[in-house]
Amino acid sequence: MKAVRVRDHQPVLESDAPEPVVRRGEAVVEIEAACVSHLDLQIARGEFSEQPPRPYVPGTDASGRVLVGDGVRPGERVWVRGGGVGVVRDGCWAERVGLPVEALHPLREDVDAVLAATFFVPCATAHSALHDVGGLTAGERVAVRGAGGAVGGVATQLALAGGAGEVIAILRSAEPPAVIPDGARVVVAAEPDELAGALAGSGIDLLIDTVGGEGLAACIPAMRPRGRIVLVGYVAGTRLELDILALLTHDVSLLPLNGLSREAAMEALADGWLDALVRHDLRLATTEYPPKRLEDALQAVGAGRSRGRVALRF
């Protein structure tokens, strides 16, 4: 059986991995597709707060079909998330895996396997950022920094659908990705000084920042008094320097989002997001690789070369 294992902080594809066995409260799932995410790479490098025993199979998100299990129906199609999968125990980067039943969620047959393996985190994060933490009110002006990424692209679409009066999609390059909806105003700025100039006078009520790093400070003067910045990601760096006086003067709230702590509540909305994705009312960019191109998939995620989500299709 093919499986990816992490031994010395490096995921490696193995062709002779042992077959999973059924344990109480678990099921063996034949994996159709498994997401390759920044979180998976963080855990592999030992940079995340929780770690599975090594060696281990990475992968927190996937789609597949139940082969056999404790209290589950063989042949049922599922998407996988939760139960510590890929975080404190073996994950999904294998042809067949043993998974806790609590991590299995029913999946309709008409959903593409890669889409099913990659949709939940961007949709749940974007929804939480806009509504649970950001408190979006109809008619407000919303900006999304990093709108070309998976979370940013979904947030841009959900902001328009949620009644935002205007949505500003902030990109680093001049070619807008396909996930930017009609009706969003695109701002292109590669450097903080460019961003500050491009946003000057925008009067932003709610900023969703999926990027982090030093560019966040450049957005503060463009905020309305009592505006909110929801800090979601950190692909540009985990550290930033902010002028406290600027925050106080502009009367801006900085609100960090912990998506993991909100996932259980978001599961109830998953079917609606999948329905919207199947109808193409909501779009999510994905790129898939076969397991033999594991290195390409890892580089695409680690170097930020891929727009949207990356997956291994088994």
What topology does this entry show?
Blueprint: E1 3-6, E2 11-14, E3 26-36, H1 38-45, E4 62-69, E5 77-80, E6 96-100, E7 104-106, H2 113-118, H3 120-133, E8 141-145, H4 150-161, E9 166-171, E10 185-188, H5 192-199, E11 204-209, H6 215-219, E12 223-231, H7 244-250, E13 253-256, H8 263-266, H9 270-279, E14 286-289, H10 294-302, E15 309-313
Parallel strand pairs: 8-9, 8-11, 9-10, 11-12, 12-13, 14-15
Antiparallel strand pairs: 1-2, 3-4, 3-6, 3-15, 4-5, 5-7
Helix pairs in contact: 3-4
Low-confidence stretches: none
Number of discrete domains? 2
The CATH architecture assignment of the largest domain turns out to be Alpha-Beta Complex
* N-to-C CA distance: 11 Å
Under CATH, the topology of the largest domain can be stated as: Quinone Oxidoreductase, Chain A, domain 1
CA radius of gyration: 20 Å
Average pLDDT reading: 93
Structure description:
This protein has 314 residues and is α/β, with parallel strands linked by helices. The protein has two domains: 146 residues, Medium-chain alcohol dehydrogenases, catalytic domain (Quinone Oxidoreductase, Chain A, domain 1); 140 residues, Rossmann fold. It is 26% helix and 26% strand. The chain contains ten helices and 15 strands. Strands 3, 4, 5, 6, 7, 14 and 15 form a seven-stranded mixed sheet that branches. Strands 10-9-8-11-12-13 form a six-stranded parallel sheet, with helices on both faces. It has a two-stranded antiparallel ribbon with strand order 1-2. The longest helix is centred in the middle third of the chain and has 14 residues. The model has no long low-confidence stretch (mean pLDDT 93).
